[in-house]
Amino acid sequence: MKLTFALMSAVLAASVSSVPMKRDVDPSLVPDFGHAANVNPTGTGDCDGAVNGTNGQPVKVPCSCPPDRNSFIQSLNANVNAGHAVNNPSIPVTFPTGQDSASKVARIQASLVTLQNLNGPGKGCPAASTTLVAQQAALQKRVFEEFTFSKRDVDPALVPDFGHAAGVNPTGTGDCDGAVNGTDGQPIKVPCSCPPDRTSFIQKLNANVAAGHAINNPSVAVTFPTGQDNVSQVARIQASLVTLQNLNGPGQGCPAASTTFVAQQQALQRRGTVDFLY
Ligand SMILES: *[C@@H]1O[C@H](CO)[C@@H](O)[C@H](O)[C@H]1NC(C)=O
Ligand SMILES: *[C@@H]1O[C@H](CO)[C@@H](O)[C@H](O)[C@H]1NC(C)=O
Ligand SMILES: *[C@@H]1O[C@H](CO)[C@@H](O)[C@H](O)[C@H]1NC(C)=O
């Protein structure tokens, strides 16, 4: 496991350092304005914005707002590469590329700052010439929900299967066959009560995940990422192994060999490394 991750880190570090520092943003990640310029001109330079006022009528915005998307993206690139609004340097600008809601919120924020400082400090197009604020509010609600959900119990469907039943081939002295063969080619003996009942196991796992560490062995960290990628899957098996081995006290629980967890983890790591390298 250590070797796999050391290798991956080395390859990652090599590829990251060869990437130029300044890069333009991916236009497909730039949020849509959600509204066109020049809607319903009054004849005095004002047009309808994307947002209604308290009177239920569209807020008026300059007819040139929102700006042309291509020139907007050029301004956004300049701000992202500078790390702040070029025309208003005290306002930081970051443009994370993730598909998670928090990254999307940050990208909208970068776009709003760019929009509102297009031509000088505080000089640009009003937010109301776009639906960006409404888009951001909807995503912020999602961020909150995702955060709240992450504090809740783990999704049982994401808890790896033990891959082996308790009580197989009892010797009569409390030992049973484990899921793994020893060097003699015979199944390793494990307590007949291992692996534990899945429902009570998930309860212990929930407690450990909520605490961020094994409750019965606090120096051992426990995280339970929810992604479908192999790294997340490996981490979930790790959380399950730690829970299993510390069910009843520090280092007191069921042996890993009462499950196929280690083999499952190794299979994922092999696949991850192979996919990563080729
Ligand atoms: C603004 O009000 C009009 C009716 O005056 C309505 O059709 C429209 O959906 C409203 N737009 C927003 C963004 O609330
Ligand atoms: C353990 O060995 C038995 C034969 O003794 C074999 O049938 C079984 O597949 C082996 N199990 C594992 C997990 O290697
Ligand atoms: C992860 O494993 C799955 C199978 O579970 C495989 O299809 C996928 O390509 C692997 N991806 C990575 C990045 O290792």
State the main characteristics:
Chorismate mutase domain-containing protein; alpha+beta; elongated; disordered N terminus; binds 2-acetamido-2-deoxy-beta-D-glucopyranose; signal; single chain; 7 helices; two-stranded antiparallel ribbon
Please provide a written account of the structure.
With 278 residues, this protein is an alpha+beta fold. The chain folds into two domains: 22-152, no CATH class; 153-278, no CATH class. Helix content is 40%, strand content 14%. Strands 1-2 form a two-stranded antiparallel sheet. A two-stranded antiparallel ribbon has the order 3-4. Strand 1 (46-52) and strand 2 form a beta hairpin. The longest helix is centred in the middle third of the chain and has 19 residues, at 132-150. It starts with a helix and ends with a helix. Residues 180-181, 185 line the site of one 2-acetamido-2-deoxy-beta-D-glucopyranose. It comes from Piloderma croceum (strain F 1598).
Quick rundown:
Helix content is 40%, strand content 14%.
Strand content: 5-15%
Instruction: Tell me the strand order in the biggest sheet.
Output: 1-2
- The structural domain count equals 2
The topology string of helices and strands comes to HEEHEEHHEEHEEHH
Which small molecules are bound? 2-acetamido-2-deoxy-beta-D-glucopyranose
Shape: elongated
**What number is the mean pLDDT?**
88
Level of helix content? 40-55%
Largest sheet: 2 strands, antiparallel
Number of strands: 8
Coarse structural class: alpha+beta
**Unreliable stretches covering 5 or more consecutive residues:** 1-20
- List the total number of helices: 7
Distance between the termini: 19 Å
- Radius of gyration over alpha carbons? 27 Å
